[in-house]
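User: I'm writing a short report section on ligand binding and want a predicted complex to refer to. Could you take this sequence and iron/sulfur cluster and write out the structure as tokens? A short remark afterwards would be nice.
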Amino acid sequence: MKTFFNLIQEIQKEGKCNLCGGCVTFCSAINHEALGVDSDGWPYFKAIDKCIECGLCYSICSQTNELDNEIKKDAQWKEPFGKVIEISVARAKDESLRDMGTDGAIVSAILIHLFDTQRIDGAIVSKNTRYGRVSFLAKSKEDIFASTGIHFTKSHGMVDFAHDYSTFSPSTSELKELKNHSLERVAFVGVPCQINTIRKMQALDLVPSEIIKYCFGIFCSGNYYFSERFLNLLEEKYGFSCKEVKKINVKEAFIISLFSGEQVLIPLHELDRVKRLACDFCDDFSAGYADISFGGTGAPSGWTTAITRTQIGKAVFNDALKNKLETYRVDDNPQYITLAEKKIKIMSELKKQRADYSKTSLENAGIKVIG
Ligand SMILES: Cc1cc2nc3c(=O)[nH]c(=O)nc-3n(C[C@H](O)[C@H](O)[C@H](O)COP(=O)(O)OP(=O)(O)OC[C@H]3O[C@@H](n4cnc5c(N)ncnc54)[C@H](O)[C@@H]3O)c2cc1C
Ligand code: SF4
Ligand code: SF4
Ligand code: SF4
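Assistant: Sure. The structure tokens for the complex follow:
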């Protein structure tokens, strides 16, 4: 039976741990408490004597290939980027929500709709702080407004985004919080590796994954950690000040929107050295296991591309369309869905190539690659 010891050897030591916190969350959820998270977010054996060697932390880790066949079967996964029922380009009807949203703010609009219609009593999202994203258990639609987009306030503009900043949010860790609240129906928003962990937990019926009724995935080309020094270099090279940053977004480029309305576009390859190492091994761009996947890729500015993948995802999306969302008019661009699909395909292919290259490089260095 492989345990956390094997996660240390095969995943952490190879630089493939994405710090999702899934292993720690599960071990705590079943009250073994053998694992902890250090101040840098790394899971570690906090009390090795409490480990009963159940092996479940290894099974649910998104970076191992355990349970891949099961979750692929459950999701009816298809090449090249998972099952697709429908692709849409949409935005929230609410203009103020759009102003805060990353793209078209449809993730937030759908969550608000689910709260309004009492289909959820909680949502695991992430919200911005001056040091980066933190995971957050939203319990009302007001909480959703606070977590929309990656935006900064003018009042704190003097300090926000001017220190070390990480785009990563350990949302899976927030599952631990669920046992402290009497919630029954929760939506989860996360990047593809986090959705992967939730699906593995659901495949094994592990608590508290049964409370997660909706899995909303966001496209992901990588997560980035910006040191203050690196931010200063970017400021100098691209001629902006962190104090002027209103919003950030990741699409084909890293997009920094300033309070003045100007945008600074930084090519993603320029951020390779601040990308988390684990992301180089990840081959899921469009969250192939989600109920609905969302991203800016393929959509015009201010709109979001959504891929509905399950019947439950389709039902929620269509229901939200009635009063919370509007779709891009086909008349404006009859080719838009084909173009969106094409771009997602290209991004997915590029990500797979990068993951294969990283794995081959490790193998060439004589290191056995798992996952
Ligand atoms: C690190 C990162 C990389 C991305 N890379 C791409 C990309 O390459 N191409 C692309 O098309 N799209 C990418 N996206 C997705 C894109 O930025 C938007 O999240 C998506 O288009 C939804 O936009 P929206 O305006 O509809 O959502 P909003 O209504 O603004 O809601 C966004 C939701 O995402 C949650 N969220 C934000 N950051 C995180 C995080 N780090 N971890 C977990 N949840 C989070 C928020 O809590 C909120 O619920 C990336 C997102 C992130 C966080
Ligand atoms: S008790 Fe199970 S979940 Fe916890 S560390 Fe040991 S093997 Fe992993
Ligand atoms: S990737 Fe997640 S589940 Fe796997 S070892 Fe790292 S923190 Fe644990
Ligand atoms: S690139 Fe993959 S491993 Fe990295 S944060 Fe995104 S989904 Fe997770």
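A remark for your report: The chain has a mean pLDDT of 90. The chain is about 30% helix and 20% strand.
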